[in-house]
Amino acid sequence: xxxFVLALFFISSAHAQLxxxxxxxxxxxxxxxxxxxxxxxxxxxxxxxxxxxxxxxIPNRDTVTARLKLWNVTQAQAVFVSHTHFDHATDVGIxxxxxxxxxxxxxxxxxxxxxxAPKVPFALVANQDTVPVGDFRVTFFKRRHAPIIQWADWHFxxxxxxxxxxGKFWQFWGGETWSxxxxxxxGNTLIDQxxxxxxxxxPLAGKVKNYFMxxxxxxxxxxMMKENLGVLRPxxxxxxxxxxxxxxxxxxxxxVMPGMELEKxxxxxxxxxxxxxxxxxxxxxxxxx
Length: 289
What we know:
Number of helices: 9
Number of strands: 14
Strand content: 15-25%
Distance between the termini: 34 Å
Strand order of the largest sheet: 6-5-4-3-2-1-14
């Protein structure tokens, strides 16, 4: 009987499907059925009042709980945030608190989490650190956030989170910016909302099966084809950070930010990299990886 139970366990584990899910903006859920990790799980959006009066951004617990239910997340083992701008870090504390997760990141994120949810465990990391999470291994690549206005090399709100952080809109400075190389027996994944290739990625050439690729601040489609896809040679590519993230979550998926050029990117991939599966994800829907 014991042998039969063990056999069933190993069979079910061997056939567990690695699954991804785009959560909106730069958010990604990654799970193998045993371990769940959330990257940039943002739900709460600022209103005009936040922009004008520097109001505190206060997540609604019921709204966050409902979104986690939609994502089929009852518990998570780890939460990561690529940087601490408002469209990435407003909900990190409450998400970790509700799911029992540990948050991993740099000093700026630590300041945010300490204010939002002081009892949530936090692990401080540095560039090129690798942390095990279940059967996953997550390596941190520190990079610079891509400029918002390219011709002027202008970066939005670049700098560390202030030590007197109290959740106010204009206190969400960018902090440390990370991309993540996630290794797993069922296939490796690169999660990079940064949009641009960095030289630190070059050793990952040929090692990336799934690529969640930010497109919001790309240098150009040609550069993306030559560098991001040409060097890394991923099997599957899922664009992220293309939605109109200023809108509240209930309407966000209906809007694509101007200049994203998703259809043109898709057609160019078909022409220049026909071996790559390029799929525009549906927000909140599971993706078999």
